[in-house]
Model the fold of this input.
Amino acid sequence: MNIADELLGGSRLALSRAITAVENEYDDAVNIMQKLYPHTGNAHVIGITGPPGAGKSTLTDKLAKEYRRQGKTVGIIAIDPTSPFSGGAILGDRIRMNELTLDEGVFIRSMGTRGSLGGLSRKTSEAIKILDAFGFDMVLVETVGVGQSEVDIVKTADTTLVVLVPGLGDDIQAIKAGILEIGDVFAINKADHEGVDRLHTELEMMLDLNQEKTDWRPPVQRVIANRGEGINELAEAIEKQIVQSKQSGQFSIRRTDRTRSELLAMLDEQVARFVRRKLSDYGKFDELVESVERREKNPYAVVDDIMASILR
Amino acid sequence: MEKRVRVLVAKPGLDGHDRGAKVVARALRDAGFEVIYTGLRQTPEQIAEAALQEDVNVIALSLLSGAHNHLFPRIVELIRAKGMTDVLMIGGGVIPDADIPALKAAGISEVFTPGTTTTTIIDYIKANVK
Done:
């Protein structure tokens, strides 16, 4: 039996190996994904994002336990940054989730960003599909700690939860653009800390001013994740968003957008690979680099020539 | 993309000293490995399951409590029972020389005692990882 069949038969080792295969781009990765794809689309994907130290891992742990209480199974992808210098990474999100390790209804996979800059890892969306195909009801994706512009999660998740904490800065205006625009639901964690009222008020005001999302006003829920306070209410707020987005059609619009952008991205990747391969057949590329460097040729004309020659 | 070596750095048992494990984790990261660190006081069952979920190539166990003769072989047994036959397992900590042969016989490939440089550990992993 191959990995895909074993995975569909319920093997956790095959599940784990399938993620490795796509992450390392092994030869059988595309074959595995082709077999798994018909079995995807059933899990609800929740992205959990926010600045470093906001408590994303602890909140992910508590939300997963809440879903387990509801009888749902949970796949978790926890992403931490890869060092741009060594290529290595310390993936430490599991520290907050150790109680889930031996729960057979849960599977946690840590991933390094491996050069991806949008808050996710390069193969996050494939890893989600693999967990989805295995049959998990919910897939929780915890992003790296983000600043303002790492918003890839919104293209990947059905529901985006933005986690904030008091005390990160004087004014929420500073982070108004970016991650604050992508939340379907907001959690203010560490709600026993100083400054929570101010953050809460500013967040509500900002959300009232946001006129783009007319059919859904993102709710703000205070939580104290490490004590488990407010988690029930947060799960309820998320559930309401799920129901509402399905009723309004937003859910299927997002999924169609995602399918479209995934197809385009795969196409781009294939085209780029094809061009690179042709380029090595083309041979004299180094000479062209030098002649462009000497200003004997201009790069725009060179690219036109190469494309004309490749596509001939 | 080339294969990235993934290492689970784990602390089985009850001792609360993780300075050594953290120093090793950091050195392995700087050597280009993906290090999954699971924190203190893990049971053998938790370590084996985490290793499976993370599909690691290496499990590095750190232990200072003296319970290595019990815990290390137990983890090897659980890992093999999960079908992970190609995982490199190494151990480190305050481990008497006299205990090392039995640990190796049980499936721990190498044991690193106090004073070992992180470079030694990194070189060993690079040479022996499958």
